[in-house]
Design a protein that fits this description.
Helix content: 10-25%
Radius of gyration: 17 Å
Low-confidence stretches: none
Distance between the termini: 34 Å
Strand content: over 45%
Strand order of the largest sheet: 1-2-3-4-8-7-6-5
Number of helices: 2
Structural class: mainly beta
Length: 127
């Protein structure tokens, strides 16, 4: 697990990179991974999930490819998501809400790059 710290990162061959953003933990990969039909040599972790850092496609173009309607789309910023799973289960007085979304965005500290991945949210309440 990544939470195992430097030992896990060393085994994976991941090198922590400076993201310049307190909300993103960035790693350079020993070999590119293929996602969304493209290669990514870097990934970031947000508070809600992993995202690939992509070159060669604009965020609006990737968002369009993936059927994502943007909530923000200006020359300076793109932000969009598409829910993949939204469910609510209610059993024995416990309500579990699950939401998984596909996200595409730009990040100021990663100019010219598109950041894309998934976010995961689980909310458990006792009735």
């Amino acid at each position: 697990m990544i939470s195992d710290g430097p030992v896990a990162l060393e085994k994976l061959g991941w090198k922590e990179a400076t993201s310049g953003n307190l909300f993103l933990k960035q790693y350079d990969l020993p070999e590119p991974v293929r996602t969304f039909g493209r290669e990514a040599s870097s990934i970031v972790f947000t508070a809600t999930g992993p995202m690939a850092v992509l070159d060669g496609i604009s965020a609006p173009d990737l968002g369009h490819e993936l059927g994502i309607v943007p909530t923000v789309s200006t020359a300076e910023k793109f932000l969009g998501e598409k829910a993949v799973v939204e469910s609510t289960e209610d059993a024995n007085g416990i309500k579990i809400e699950t939401r998984i979304a596909l996200n595409v965005t730009t990040v100021d500290l990663h100019p010219g790059k598109t950041v894309a991945g998934c976010s995961y949210a689980l909310n458990v309440t006792v009735n």
